[in-house]
Amino acid sequence: MSEYDYDLFVIGAGSGGVRAARVSASYGAKVAVAEEYRVGGTCVIRGCVPKKMLVYGSHFSEELEDGKNFGWTWENAKFDWIKLRDHILSDVDRLNNAYTETLNNHEVEIILERAEIVGPHEIKLASGKTVTAKYILIAVGAWPVVPEFPGSEHMMTSNEMFHLEKLPETIIISGGGYIANEFAGIFNGLGSKVTLVNRSDVILRGYDESLRDRLIQISTLKGINFKFNCNFEKIEKREDGAFDVYMGGPHIDSAPVRADVVLVATGRRPKTDGLGLENVGVEMDDKGAIKVDEYSRTNVDSIYAVGDVTDRVQLTPVAIREGQAFAETVFNDTPKTVDYNCIPSAVFSQPPIASVGLTESEARMKYGNIKIYSSDFRAMRNVFADRAERSLYKMIVEATSGKILGLHMIGPDAPEILQAAAVAVKAGLTKQDFDDTVALHPSMAEELVLLK
User: Fold this and answer.
1) Which helix (H) or strand (E) holds 213?
2) Quick one: pLDDT band at residue 249, thresholds 50, 70, 90?
3) Which residues are marked as active site?
4) Could you tell me which residues are beta bridge partners of residue 110?
5) pLDDT-derived band of residue 76, with 50, 70 and 90 as boundaries?
6) Phi, psi of 448 (to 5 degrees)
7) Which residues contact 213 (CB under 8 A, 6 or more apart)?
8) Does 390 have pLDDT greater than 60?
9) What pLDDT is stored for residue 371 in this prediction?
10) Could you give the count of Cα atoms lying within 13 Å of 120 in the half-sphere of its Cβ?
11) Which of 134, 139, 293, 325 is deepest in the core (most CB within 10 A)?
12) CA dihedral (304, 101, 40, 276) positive or negative
């Protein structure tokens, strides 16, 4: 009989935790998962999945307009926020049930309570019960950061945006990252007046500068108002339920701006508060992220961590890979690590951005001698619809070897196109390999093999 109640106790039932629990159980481990809210985690419940549904929904305003040049007409077309919202929440319920069923099918015990670590092998549940485990895996993810200033309690985070009672006429979004730009595109497409406020003059740090500039240009033409080098001073609630937002900075009018919703999207921090990590001396960095080695192990041998709670890459597919590698390493006696090189990423702005590998500036810093190939074009459907929006594809190549160092795209369906191309970049293929590939015509993707 085991000296512990479980072989593995997972805290957090998000993407990384569910994968680690399921695979570990498939290798014969006795596994339990504690989740204080709902099975599925940020991505499924309050993140990328419901947000992508909102992106899809917001596209129809332009598509209905573009349809006129394709022979379509619609009478009395109108948008119903409640219908879209409730259908999205219904799909979240479906996914929550699917994740729950997956764990049940693998005989993973689900404990819908908050859990706190009280020893290297000991966990205390909110009910007061204490259990033990040979290994503890922390997979609680990250949480939105809300700044502190007068009235900041009136700001909403991305967590609440899927539950709005009505579509806001005006919305102010604080931030310049992917969450801010995605919600700006969503609510602009749904008909809200959107202002994006950023404390610097740079959006989407880490993405290629050419793509960032193109997104600002297109977003501005769509009616999104950008306020750069701007900070919030205070927010006051009005009698009608809206807010007066006071902002400061160069060239910023001191008069308040009215908004129905003020969304803060200025970053996320690991959700390590109250986990009891100090009870066992688990090391964290100055941002509260858990430090781990290449096998996701903390400085405490029996405690591991995966996903956004660590000091690594905060992406759902990465958390899943880390959860899989953990299970292989600990319960299948097959040590596995995750390769963080050439991870593709996307911003589901409008139009979307997709990227893999080094940006132009990164490549110049690392390699010096590089070549840039690009295509700046209007997608066929945009030409036919009389839409001026232009796409940009950009390839970064090492000059001497011809090896592709990075690939960056902004335009319709860019993430769908980049996923296959990312395989080529990851495999170390060259510009000549792309040139030798026959174009698939007519398509936007063919630009990748025609870059000059």
Assistant:
1) helix 209-222
2) confident
3) 441
4) 33
5) confident
6) -65, -30
7) none
8) yes
9) 98
10) 8
11) 139
12) negative
* pLDDT tens string 200-229: 999 999 999 999 999 999 999 999 999 999
User: What is the model's pLDDT at position 222?
Assistant: 97
Beta bridge mates, 236: 244
Token pair in block for residue 417: 């196109």
What is the dihedral sign for C-alpha 279, 280, 285, 291? negative
Identify residue 366 by its one-letter amino acid code: K
Q: What is the DSSP string of 26-80?
A: HTT--EEEE-SS-TTHHHHHHSHHHHHHHHHHHHHHHHHHHGGGGT---SS----
Q: Compute the radius of gyration of the chain from its Cα atoms.
A: 24
Tokens of 71: 């022979």
User: What tokens does 110 get?
Assistant: 């689900």
Q: Are 225 and 196 in contact (CB under 8 A)?
A: yes
The partner residues of 283 in beta bridges, in order of sequence, read: none
- In angstroms, the first-to-last Cα distance of the chain is 67
Contact 325, 338 (CB under 8 A): yes
Query: How many other CB atoms are there within 10 angstroms of residue 286's CB atom?
Result: 5
Residue 252: pLDDT above 90? no
CA distance linking residue 426 with residue 436, whole number of Å: 18
| Contact indicator for 115, 124 with CB cutoff of 8 Å | yes
When the pLDDT of each residue in the chain is averaged and rounded to a whole number, the result is 95
Q: Is the pLDDT of residue 311 over 90?
A: no
The residue length of the chain stands at 452
Inform me whether the pLDDT recorded for 1 exceeds 60.
no
Q: What does the alpha-carbon distance between residue 367 and residue 206 come to, in Å, rounded to a whole number?
A: 18
Contact 306, 326 (CB under 8 A): yes
Please give the model's pTM, rounded to 2 decimal places: 0.95
DSSP designation for 403: B
8 A C-beta contact, residue 309 and residue 323: no
Residue 9 to residue 208: CA distance in whole angstroms: 41
| Helix/strand number for the chain, H first, E second | 12, 21
Q: Which band of pLDDT confidence, cut at 50, 70 and 90, is reported for residue 2?
A: confident
On the CB side of 88, how many CA atoms lie within 13 Å of its CA? 25
In this predicted structure, the answer to whether residue 250 has a pLDDT above a threshold of 90 is no
Residues 45 and 6: their CA atoms lie apart, in Å, by 27
What pLDDT shows up at residue 253? 76
Q: What is the rounded (10 degree) CA torsion for 123, 125, 129, 135? A: -20
Is the four-CA dihedral 358, 362, 368, 369 of positive or negative sign?
Answer: positive
On the CB side of 416, CA atoms within 13 Å amount to 7
